[in-house]
Amino acid sequence: MTAPAPAPVSLFNTLTRRVEPLLPLAPPRVTLYTCGPTVWNYAHIGNFRTFLFEDLLRRWLEHAGYDVFHIMNLTDVDDRTIKAARQAGKRLVEHTAPFTKAFFEDRDYLRIKPAHVYTPATEYMPQMIALVSKLLERGVAYKGEDGSVYFAIAKFPTYGRLSQLDKREIKVGARVASDEYAKGDPSDFALWKKADAADEAVGAVWDAPFGRGRPGWHLECSAMSLAEIAKCCGVQTLDIHAGGIDLIFPHHENEIAQSEGATGQPFARHWVHGEFLNVRGTKMSKRHGNFLTARDLREQGVDAAAVRLLFFQTHYRAPVDFTDEALEGAKEGVRRLGEFHERLKREEGRGKGDGEIAELTKKFEDDVVTALNDDLNAPRAVAALFDFVRATNRELDNPKGGGGAAQALAAFERVTGADLLDILPSERAVAPALARWVEERVAARNQARKSKDFKAADAIRAELVARGVEIEDTPTGTKWRLG
Ligand code: AMP
Ligand code: ZN
Questions:
Q1: Which residue, among 363, 364, 366, 359, has the nearest Cα to 404 in the 3D structure?
Q2: pTM beyond cutoff 0.85
Q3: Which pLDDT score is estimated for 430?
């Protein structure tokens, strides 16, 4: 017997500007490459909006029966990391390592599933050097008089297809050395940058047959993704390549040119791009100073479930404006989900049934599947979820109803639990500073009780209650929670 075919998933493809069925090369396997963080500093929640939509995409594909192989890179050498290391007076790796570690902590806080492989750029130098050599050999790259190696976009006839570049804008022979530049400035771009004093100072230099230097940012993703899909799956084409919309040009355009210029095969079948997280209409970014990091939110005691819900309430291809009110609304939504979850757990024994709740449950699950299959329409899935919560609560209020609560609970957990949206409240979403204070007070109270100073113990309990902390003495110790 063959395994059932995975369910049809459709996704907008930037390459064709249409929603298209996902057609992996060798189903049920899906190779997914997502451009990861540049570890020059802490990632902000704008970056995490992109990583969260990719997390949902990955989870949904797995839910639909695909066997996803997810690769994410870590940009630990590029213009920004070198500049930041230089300013900090550190070696490159010494500067980036703590930010890589912080990224993994933030990822775990936000409940993002780890990729199967993380590829730090500095660990793929042989592959990058080999890719540049291949492009030189094939005549689509050349060494400039400045000693750097450039990709010749005029030699790659489909250059500009992804970003729908007007071919008339392409200035033959114009060159750009920096990693980032605008769509209005399409030029031959650096694959390998000749070492300069700043690179040498931070140790961002490698020897190559075409000169001592370091990779351009775009080269890194081509080399790492091609290396990993060759290793895992013996292919040269990715099923899905994803990132934020700012990566379409020049980053992804250049990745296509470099990869296809070397392999002669399509680089990625489906290109998926997420919109920005904005603040009052402006892209959240370090440059604009309008950013918030995941650790800021964690320090404030914000439950990751609320951040996930906040982002999933908007389609990944529509901008989100980050406001305190929107976050408060999401927190309230998570609280309601938690309450409903508790209620279902309490009432699941109210009898099996194929009554109203069974029907609501079926409709709920069908709606979620339809929404997510349709270009990962998470806001429609979330709306179906809250409709289901409202309607089921009404049924449970009816003393004669309530049959089917067990099935409702199972479906509710499948959608909101750790396998899919992952938006149920954390056990203890408490600000770390508050948690430390509570732990200290609880220990002091226990000490007071041990020395039979019950007056002091009661005073501490009152102090805790005043801050909304409930405590319970159990045989295994004192338990506490926020009431
Ligand atoms: P970087 O660390 O700058 O290389 O970016 C990592 C990822 O975050 C990329 O996929 C970017 O497209 C994405 N990104 C950057 N800023 C934002 C933002 N304000 N909203 C959503 N995604 C963003
Ligand atoms: Zn990339």
A1: 359
A2: yes
A3: 60
